[in-house]
């Protein structure tokens, strides 16, 4: 008998009990779709986390003061910031941006908005912090030197204050002083609870003059020349800062008075966490596939047992063992392949929706694995009882109850 | 006389072991020649069904040889056995044993499919066989929509579609009413009249009366073997006008 003939026989066998065939396929469909989708959700959340962290810029380190404000010997100063931009002691540093920030209410006309972080910094900050200008322009080094009151607003601030009008060139009030809006930041994905777009950026000198005073800096953003040099930058920064901060102050506290944050470290930790999460989801899904597999096994066993008599009839009519075995194997394969492919399709459709706030990202290997496992289960547990029945003497198969 | 279609020598079949041993066949020897119409009679437990299953190559004897068309069946491997069942033997069961949810014509086609015959040719021959048993108009019906007699005639069509040398029937009329019995027996008579060898198991005297030879089994042994009519003559029950096919 030819191959298409055997396939036609198998199809006829499947269509003889449509409901059962459909239910078996449904079991495989759910198992396969669950594995692919859950792994995709885990993968998607991992990807979302790493995207957010990468948006922070992976080639920067942030120096934060651990001191409690004030202007003691341990606080960060513009002098320190300037010292970090030393090509001899810190050859891997591309730029240094001192940062002050505070929360302030901005007013325009009759509307006002409390800005989460009103940042005062130098022009290099835009590039270093991976914050591109969306419209208009940033401020210049000259603006910073002259202490001009210009400001670049974040999206949220623009939406709150201007409600659709073009903000560029308008004047807003912050901390009792007028600032001219020169630009709008591009939209930025949020890094957690804080709205990254709820911000305003102005020259350091102007912000210190108007809002924060000339005390300590909030942080210093140091950009490395290359993402791979971040570790080197970190140690260079530490060396310089240790020199600058007085020995007395160091002795008074057990820990260093500053903290260096590194985005790539954060990324690594987060990626690891997300990996664990994905594995966990995958394990849960694998269990569901296993349960689905047991379902297939059960149905296959029942089908073959029930059809042992039919196998007996076929043998009595002169069907060789191989043909019977092939027919049942093809039936099992068709069931699991069709169910599996439908499962993949369901997973692909499902992955285009957001699930629990996560956009699933399909892992190709999970598709192959889920499909492979379901087909293997179908083949094995369909083939095993079929080969047992095909080996029976026709009379024993015919008498089988 | 030519080579016998079927020849068994000292056939024995036992079930169970030790004290519980049952001798279903206790040394049966039988030779059937081409064109013969043999009825095997016996009470229940006489071993006639066991004999039939062995003759149909569905079961194997514990002891003894079975030559089918001169070939020792005991020597055959699975593949050749399948071939022998397919080409040399047509088997009609008491319980019809049609495959459910397959149309009558698909059931009749089945042995041809296993013989590797092309679908077009298969369909043509299956319809011809259904015509022989007078069921050409029921070809598309599934077994569940046919009466017992019709189902048995489909089973007969399935048994003869490969044109086997030997037609074996295990109480083919056991589950049928008298009218259906007459239909099925008429088909057998016609087939025998066209030269087909038939061995039939029955416990009904009127069925046995139509055969050319009567073999009676008691406790796994042949106790009577009588010729009722000549082997080369049409069977007693066959009507004069031969049916085409």
From TrEMBL, chain A:
Sequence ranges assigned to domain ABC3 transporter permease C-terminal in this UniProt record: 283-392
UniProt entry tagged with the keyword Cell membrane: yes
Compartments it resides in: Cell membrane
Membrane spanning stretches: 21-42, 280-302, 323-349, 361-384
Membrane topology of the entry: Multi-pass membrane protein
Top-rank lineage group of the source organism: Bacteria
InterPro entries registered for this protein in UniProt: ABC3_permease_C, MacB_PCD, Macrolide_Exporter_MacB
Principal location: membrane
Domain MacB-like periplasmic core: 21-239
Keyword terms, alphabetized: Cell membrane, Membrane, Transmembrane, Transmembrane helix
Pfam family, one: FtsX
Family classification: Belongs to the ABC-4 integral membrane protein family.
Protein name per the record: ABC transporter permease
Source organism of the structure: Paractinoplanes rhizophilus
UniProtKB/TrEMBL annotation, chain B:
Domain of life the protein comes from: Bacteria
SMART domains membership: AAA
Molecular function (Gene Ontology), one example: ATP binding
InterPro entries, A to Z: AAA+_ATPase, ABC_transporter-like_ATP-bd, ABC_transporter-like_CS, ABC_transpr_LolD-like, MacB-like_ATP-bd, P-loop_NTPase
Domain ABC transporter positions: 6-244
Keyword field contains ATP-binding: yes
UniProt entry keywords in alphabetical sequence: ATP-binding, Nucleotide-binding, Transport
Pfam name, any one: ABC_tran
PANTHER family: ABC TRANSPORTER ABCH.1, IMPORT ATP-BINDING PROTEIN
Protein name, UniProt field: ABC transporter ATP-binding protein
Organism: Paractinoplanes rhizophilus
